[in-house]
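Can anyone check this?
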Amino acid sequence: MRSRSPRRGTYGGRSCSTRLSIGTGTDVHAYDDTSELWLGGLHWPGERGLSGHSDGDALSHAICDALLSAAGLGDIGSRFGTDDPRFAGAHGDVFIVETVRLINEAGFDIANVSAQVIANAPKIGPRRDELQSRLSALVGAAVSVSATTSDGLGFTGRGEGVAVIATALLRASR
């Protein structure tokens, strides 16, 4: 069996010879009792909201950062900065849809995304399937979501906010 040589492509404007690229994204938002909670593109009625220039959707934002990182396209702050009034109050799906467009335009297909929510609330388990379906539809690839608490340690353990870590795997499309 003959092995294929890797495709050549660009990565952040540089030539590369890899077919796969992985990126990591992290986002953190404090709770805001005056906001509604939007997480993973879903509304969570009755839960404390998150602060932010947009809707504070830490899960969607971390996914965007992971995708942009894997493609060598910077991060969510450099693409959708808080100084841009168009994104004031914008929902996470706005950022994901535009990030996916940028990823595809850069010559990548999304293989999958994995994200872990670190928080005491909301409880992810009861809505995990809904979250994964919504995010997978937005990304155009499988998205898995896991969750954990920090056993009372740090700002998440004290119930001050949410942290999310995401990993994205991209495949060169050209």
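Reply from J.R.: I decoded it. The two ends are 23 Å apart (CA to CA).
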